[in-house]
Amino acid sequence: MKIIKKIIIFLALFFSTVFGFGGRPPPPPPFISGRAEGNLHIPPLFLSESDTNKVTILAGLSYFTASSIDGNIKVEGTNTIQTGKNNLHWNIPQTNLNLGIDLKAWRNFSFFTEFRISQIKNEIAVSGFNFGLGMFVNIKGNYNVRFDLGLNYESMNFDSFWQENDSTLQNRSIDDGYVNPFISLTINTSFKEWIINPFVQFSYSNQTLFSKKMVGFKPDEVYSDIELFIITPGITYRMNKTILIIIGAAAYQIPSGIENLSNETTLSAFVQINFLL
Questions:
Q1: Sign of CA dihedral 67, 61, 159, 223
Q2: φ, ψ (nearest 5 deg) of residue 5
Q3: Fewest C-beta atoms under 10 Å: which of 22, 111, 190, 207?
Q4: The pTM is what?
Q5: CA-based Rg of the chain, rounded to a whole angstrom?
Q6: Which of 243, 238, 232, 225 is nearest to 267 (CA)?
Q7: Which of 188, 213, 210, 185 lies closest to 199 in space, CA to CA?
Q8: What does the longest C-alpha to C-alpha distance in the chain come to?
Q9: CB atoms inside a 10 Å sphere around CB 97
Q10: How many structural domains are present in the chain?
Q11: Which three-class secondary structure string do you get for the chain?
Q12: Residue 191, Cα to own-chain centre: how many angstroms?
């Protein structure tokens, strides 16, 4: 009986060494800190009008009052080691050019896309885009409600530091783009006899700061996501039948994903022209 037990133990050790490489892979190294560079999600703004235009083309310029956000993030898939007050510094491009188009497919539905041009890492390039489906309704002709459901792509550069087994720091640069869902609800008026008409938009979205495959570790992926809630009020001025000028401001709240924020609310202002064709 003892011989059988020894054989079983020997075989178990042999196969665990040959096929399991000595056991379970180690967990990913703990996250120390990171420096991000990329945009906060900017939701598209296609206002519903009482007109029967089939195509809306927009061009807008937005400006963030803050150039960076500091705080503490949690990294899924590994632990974090706190070495200072904050473990995240996020540089935000302050000026962004937005170009988009909205195509009515049916009476109350449309497809839209929007591209964003920003300066990231000293280069001016397309930094992100939105695309999705819009659903809208006119109430008594001059009160309009629009619901947008879509996906948002954002380019993000994340320079991170991790603690290795010998307590040394290892730098990992993650330069990638991420797709996340968003929803928006926009309410506006369109009285032709009014000089200006008000609007307000409520938007919610997820955004990924970074995601990285960790070869040889278990779990083999680490990532950090945040949630954004955005309120955007403003006014519109109808120059003529085909041109609508929009002026507004957006207030960004991050309800989860970043703690100890340097700015509880991040603000941006924008001006936009909608061409109604």
A1: positive
A2: -65, -40
A3: 22
A4: 0.87
A5: 25
A6: 232
A7: 188
A8: 98
A9: 15
A10: 1
A11: CHHHHHHHHHHHHHHHHHHHCCCCCCCCCCEEEEEEEECCCCCCCCCCCCCCCCEEEEEEEEEECCCEEEEEECCECCCECCCCCCCEEEECCCEEEEEEEEEEEECCEEEEEEEEEEEECCEEEEEEEEEEEEEEEEECCCEEEEEEEEEEEEEEEEEEEEECCCCCEEEEEEEEEEEEEEEEEEEEECCCCCCEEEEEEEEEEEEEEEEEECCCCCCCEEEEEEEEEEEEEEEEEECCCCEEEEEEEEEEEEEECEECCCCCCEEEEEEEEEEEC
A12: 34
Per-residue pLDDT tens for 90-123? 999 999 999 999 999 888 899 999 999 998 777 8
SS (H, E, C) 3-34: HHHHHHHHHHHHHHHHHHCCCCCCCCCCEEEE
Write out pLDDT tens, residues 11-39: 454 445 444 445 578 888 999 999 999 99
CATH number of 250's domain: 2.40.128
C-beta neighbour count of 35 within 10 angstroms? 15
pLDDT in tens, 148-179: 999 999 999 999 999 887 677 788 889 999 99
- Count the residues in the chain: 277
Ramachandran class of 167: left when φ > 0, alpha when ψ lies in -120 to 50, beta otherwise: left
- CA atoms lying within 13 Å on the CB side of residue 28: 24
In the block, residue with structure tokens 């369109």: 190
Quick one: CA torsion of 148, 151, 155, 161, rounded to 10 degrees?
Answer: 110
Q: Which two tokens stand for residue 227?
A: 């949630």
Question: Where do we find the tokens 């202002």?
Answer: 269
Residue 117: give the domain boundaries.
2-276
